[in-house]
Amino acid sequence: MILEMKVPSPGESIKEVEIATWLVQDGDYVEKDQAIAEVDSDKATLELPAEAAGIITLKAEEGDAVAVGAVVCLIDTSAAKPEGAEAPKEEKKAEAPKAEAPKPAVAETKTYATGTASPAAKKILAEKNMDASSISGTGKDGRVTKEDAVSAVPSMGTPTGGSRGTSRSKMSMLRRKVAERLVEVKNTTAMLTTFNEVDMSPIFALRNEHKDAFKAKHGVGLGFMSFFTLAVVRALEMYPAVNSMMDGKEMLSYDFCDISIAVSGPKGLMVPVIRNAENLSFRGVEAEVKRLALRARDGQITVDEMTGGTFTITNGGVFGSMLSTPIINPPQSGILGMHNIVERPVAIDGKVEIRPIMYVALSYDHRIIDGKESVGFLVAVKEALENPTELLMNNDVRRALEL
C-alpha cells in the first residue's frame, strides 16, 4: 500500500512551509514516527515524523515551499525491511560533495616596459609613492620621462591577488518572516525608546549569597532573568497601558502577564512565551526560562509556545552589547532591552564608587503609551532591581527563593 504523506498544519495562520532539510534519502526504509525532515514555517522549525514504516519516495526538494496539505513524500508500507538493516538513526543525510565553485579570476596586472626613469621622473614618482616599473615609459627603450611621471595616476585599489569571491544563500522562511515583521514595526508604529541605568550591586549580593543553595534545591541557577521578569511584572501591574496593544481603533489591555523571552536559536531569533508570569516565583521563572531556551536551541519549540505574549524582554548583553534600541515585537506595545554589566564610576552620597552598572532600554508604541507612562514603567523596573529584597521578595529572601 502506498501512503501519501501530506504536510500537516503547524498553526491556523500558516499556509505553507519550506523543506529545510531531508533527514533521509530517497529509497530509504523508515520506521513509524521517525523524523524524516525538518520544515520551516514563518514562526518555527519543526520535525516531520513518518506516519508509517516502509520505503520512502521524496516528492519535494530541499528549499521547496510546500502548501499545507500537499503531498510531500510517499511511503510504500508493503515493502519489507531490508535484511541486516540497522535501526535507523535520526541524522541528516550526507550531502553530495559540492563542486568547488570556480575562484573568481584575478585581474592580471599589466606589465609595462621596465626601462629606467630619468632623475626628474624618479623624484616625481617618489613623491607619488610609485615605482617606475608600473608605468609605461614613452622615452627611448621604454625610459620613463618627466612627462610620464607627471601624468601617472596612483592606483586606487588595483587587485593584488587576494580572494574577492562572493557567496549567495537562500534565507530561511523564518528569517524572511522576521525581516518582514521588523520592517512592518518600523513603518506602522510610533516607536520611541527611553533609557535608564541600573546598579546591579544588590542583585549581585543576593546571588552570591544564595545561588549555591538555590541550585542545589531547585536544580536551576539563580540568574538575572528571574529578577528582570518579576520586576517587569510589577511594573506592568503599575502601568497597565504598557501591557496593552492596538486592535483596530481600540486598545486591548490584559490582566495577565505573558512575557516573551527573545532567545537565539539555530534558525534565528525565537521568542517563546512565559505564561502567567505574575503567578511564578523565582524558581518558577528560572525553570521555565531554562525549559524554553533548551527547546529553542534544540529546534523543538512549537508555534503555540511562541504565540500570545503581551510584553517582551531581550538580552543583548549576552553578546556584549552596551546599549541598543530594541524593536517592538508586534502586536505588542513594549519591549525591554537588557545589556552587559560593566563596572563604572558612579556618585554615591557625594563620593565616587565603582559599581556594576547595566543600561536598560524600553522601546514602546507611542500611539497608546505616553511618555510619562513609559518613563514611569522603566523607573519602576529600575527601583525593583535596585531594591529587590523589599520590592520583589517582601523582605523575606529565603521564602521568596523557596530555600
Structural class: alpha+beta
CATH top level assignment of the largest domain = Alpha Beta
Low-confidence stretches: 88-97, 101-113
**Beta-strand percentage range:** 25-35%
Average pLDDT works out at: 83
Shape: extended
CATH-defined topology of the largest domain: Chloramphenicol Acetyltransferase
Order of helices and strands: EEEEEEEEHHHEHHEEEEEHEEEEHHH
Number of strands: 18
Report, as a whole number of angstroms, the end-to-end distance: 60 Å
Q: Summarize the main sheet.
A: 8 strands, mixed
Give an overview in words.
- It is a single chain.
- The protein has 403 residues and is of the alpha+beta class.
- It folds into 3 domains: 2-76, OB fold (Dihydrolipoamide Acetyltransferase, E2P) (Beta Barrel), CATH 2.40.50.100; 119-151, Dihydrolipoamide Transferase; 191-400, Chloramphenicol Acetyltransferase, CATH 3.30.559.
- The chain is built from 9 helices and 18 strands.
- Strands 9, 12, 13, 14, 15, 16, 17 and 18 form an 8-stranded mixed beta sheet that branches.
- Strand 4 (35-40) and strand 5 (45-49) form a beta hairpin.
- Helix 5 (224-238) crosses helix 6 and helix 5 crosses helix 7.
- The longest helix is centred in the middle third of the chain and has 18 residues, at 201-218.
- The two termini are 60 Å apart.
- Residues 88-97 and 101-113 have low confidence and may be disordered.
Q: Which structural traits does this protein have?
A:
Chloramphenicol Acetyltransferase, 3 domains, 4-stranded antiparallel β-sheet, 403 residues, 9 helices, alpha+beta, Dihydrolipoamide Transferase, OB fold (Dihydrolipoamide Acetyltransferase, E2P), single chain
